[in-house]
Amino acid sequence: MVEICTTNNSLRLRYAAEQFFAPLTVRWCADGKDLYAPEKAIFYQCQSNQGVVIGPSVRDWTSLDFFYTEQPNDWGNDILLRSSEIDVFEVVFYLLARVDEYLNPNLDEHGRICTDAFIQQQWSGLNCAYIDLMRAEWIARLGIEDTFRSAKELTIDVDSAYAFLHKGMKRTLGGLVKDLIKFDFRNLSERCRALMGGEDRFDTYSYVLSQAKLHEWKARFFFLLADFGPQNIGLPFQSKGLQMLIQELDKHTAVGIHPGYHPWEEYAQATAIEVNRLKEIVGRPIQESRQHFLRMQMPDTYRLLEALGIQRDYTMGMAKEVGYRAGTSRSFRWYDYQQDRISDLEIVPFWGMDSAMKRHKGWDIATAKAEIISAMKEIEGKGDWRMIWHNETLSDAREWKGWRGVFEQQFK
């Protein structure tokens, strides 16, 4: 338990402190006389000769009437060295409430927030779990016992469940014709073998489940069930083969929705339809999601997920970079900055994605392994570990030849 003595009853302050110290309970006191252990307490905006004192910020950030118009410029370039000198709860609130995404709403070609203007770029960059490292420092400083235990999970996005199978007669014939026109005899050979009962290279599900069981990690699969389109190339949701796969995986592990790529004006309706499709396939409410292409709009996407009954979203990360978009590897409750309310929606971050490492960062296999080792070491005992992998990238074939070794580096 962490004790905080303050007369400030701000919702923002309580959110930041409770998310910062979670899973430890925060006990709030307005009078130091009511503290159980004042020598281990935090005194927020009040003086004391005991415990740790946090003075006032230069901004009235805890007031619900205050909204940032620019990034704070008084935190310095090395936030980790100054976490005991500044209002650490303001830093936590700024990062978790994703204030930067309201201040700098520049978007890339897919409508995703650009990371160039994130405040972490002024510090040590995006590849640092600032909140987790500061939390560990504060726990040690207060001299209290920590009950946090790291979680490690495999999360797999299934954009296209099979390379050749269960796509319907029209797409199957079209694929055969395309291979012939392009003289792509390797693909044609693989296609024919799969259609005649051989292996489909995207069918890596047994491999993932075996690795999860072997290393005692949880595994989660997110399925794309959008109508076919330029960016939605999954199998038809009516496919019996796809439905049987989802139902079988749902018996052994967690299955969530992977909402498709749609124009923003169509996104809400399309996502509701896709969530209902998965619900009908598995016969239960859908509670977990990750957005296709990691496309989301703050705060509209999260509000929609709330309305659809989603309890946990796994989109908090970056498509072209590795690191921690919200400055933490640990899950946290979403704060609706515009409405000033604490949501029940749990936000679950990830460190990096397979395509980000290979296609955007340009890492080879050896570099990717080294970066994973470094990132996991940094948060060991302090944070959680998750990445995004795709079923096709774990095929260990073609452009992904050798990348199973990168995937398995997580377990070493």
Which helices and strands, and how do they pair?
Blueprint: E1 2-5, H1 11-21, E2 26-29, E3 42-44, E4 52-54, H2 88-96, H3 100-103, H4 130-142, E5 152-158, H5 169-181, H6 185-195, H7 205-215, E6 218-223, H8 240-252, E7 254-257, H9 264-282, E8 288-289, H10 300-307, E9 312-313, E10 332-336, E11 341-347, E12 352-353, H11 354-360, H12 365-379, E13 385-390, H13 404-409
Parallel strand pairs: 1-2, 1-3, 3-4, 5-6, 5-13, 6-7, 8-9, 9-11, 12-13
Antiparallel strand pairs: 10-11
Characterise the protein shown here.
The chain is built from 13 helices and 13 strands. With 412 residues, it is of the alpha/beta class. It folds into 2 domains: 2-142, no CATH class; 152-163 and 201-409, Alpha-Beta Barrel (TIM Barrel). Strands 7-6-5-13-12 form a 5-stranded parallel sheet. Strands 2-1-3-4 form a 4-stranded parallel sheet. Helix 1 (11-21) links the parallel strand 1 and strand 2. The longest helix has 19 residues, at 264-282. The two termini are 33 Å apart.
Observed structural traits:
TIM Barrel; alpha/beta; elongated; 13 helices; 2 domains; four-stranded parallel beta sheet
The dominant shape is elongated
CATH level-3 fold name of the largest domain: TIM Barrel
In the predicted model, the low-confidence regions spanning at least 5 consecutive residues are: none
Radius of gyration: 23 Å
Summed up, what is this model?
This protein is of the alpha/beta class and 412 residues long. 34% of the residues lie in helices and 13% in strands.
